Amino acid sequence: MGLSQKSIEALLQQYIKYDDAYRIGRPLVSDQEFDALKKVLLEEAPDHPVLENAGEGIVLKSMGNQPFNNWFADSRFSTVIVQPKIDGIAIALRYKQGHLVKAWNRKGNDKTQALRLVKNIPTDLRYSMNGTVDIRGELFVRGVDRNVSQQTAAGHIRKKKPLEENDLCFSAFEIMNQNNIPFYSTAHYPTEKHILDQLTLWGFDTPPTYIAETWDVCHGFHQKWLDGLFHNMEYPSDGVAFKVMDREVQQEMGCSSVAPRWQLAVKEDWKH
Questions:
Q1: What are the DSSP E strand ranges found in 180-251?
Q2: Each residue of 128-149: pLDDT tens digit?
Q3: What is the pLDDT of residue 270?
Q4: Three-state DSSP string of 48-116
Q5: Closest CA to 112 of 203, 25, 32, 50
Q6: 188-237 pLDDT, tens per residue?
Q7: DSSP SS3 for 184
Q8: Contact in structure between 108 and 157 (CB atoms under 8 Å)
Q9: Lesser CB count within 10 Å: N end or C end of the chain?
Q10: Distance between CA atoms of 152 and 167, rounded to whole angstroms?
């Protein structure tokens, strides 16, 4: 199209205005008009910072699944935190300057409007902050079969007009871009427990969390889950989540193309 820089800047200002209005549930133009404007800008100024989040959200990684003994050895037998592996759908939330501006599902599709209707997702963080923070968690229904939880959560975000009255809950368990936020470096927040405490401080619900330092204790939590005694009634779950406590060890273990190596999901089979 070859627009002048002045014209591009004017369109960018329009885009910001329309995008901000959409994020708070008060759209100024139709979806078709907004998408047409976005398409023009992505063609004319694809690298402009304003358009950084104009596409889809970040695709969310799964948890690792391998024999526990192998994983525990890879972690150098580190202290781990143990949580129910809540079974709903994976969701991520983006906050800028403490305000919710974007939400998406595992595939990266925008679900902001639907997730604004979930009562325990904060529209504004309890304690504001500068910059952008991405929060990962699970959308689910308490006290129901895990298949019902999945189906209800998935149905809610698929609807063009999701119900304002719903039984959905969100449980937050990760600051996705924590390594890009200087204040949340390993020096200030050296363990996974510190991250969970920060999420609670911001106003999020987090999963029940326990600390385990030995193989026997980890195995005991898994057995409790198999026996239906590990928060099974309240949290629909399909296993137990184990995560390395020390964030420096997390960084050393890194991530594969599909999952963080410092996290492990153990379902029915303990896999010695």
A1: 210-212, 237-244
A2: 777 888 999 999 999 999 999 9
A3: 83
A4: CHHHCCCCCCCCCCCCECCCHHHHHHHCCCCCEEEEEEECCEEEEEEEECCEEEEEEECCCCECHHHHC
A5: 25
A6: 889 999 999 999 999 999 999 999 999 999 999 999 999 999 999 999 99
A7: helix
A8: no
A9: N
A10: 9
Q: Find, among 124, 156, 122, the residue nearest to 139 by Cα.
A: 156
Cα R_g (the chain), whole angstroms: 20
Hey, what amino acid is at 98?
G
Which option is the CATH number for 68-266: 3.40.50.1010, 3.30.460.10, 3.30.470.30, 3.40.30.10? 3.30.470.30
C-beta neighbour count of 228 within 10 angstroms: 9
Residues 89, 30, 40, 47: is their CA dihedral positive or negative? negative
Backbone angles phi, psi at 217, to 5 degrees: -70, -40
What's the token pair of residue 79? 């202290």
All structural domains of the chain with their residue ranges: 5-51, 68-266
User: Which backbone phi and psi does 91 adopt, to 5 degrees?
Assistant: -135, 145
Q: Is 40 helix (H, G, I), strand (E, B) or coil?
A: helix
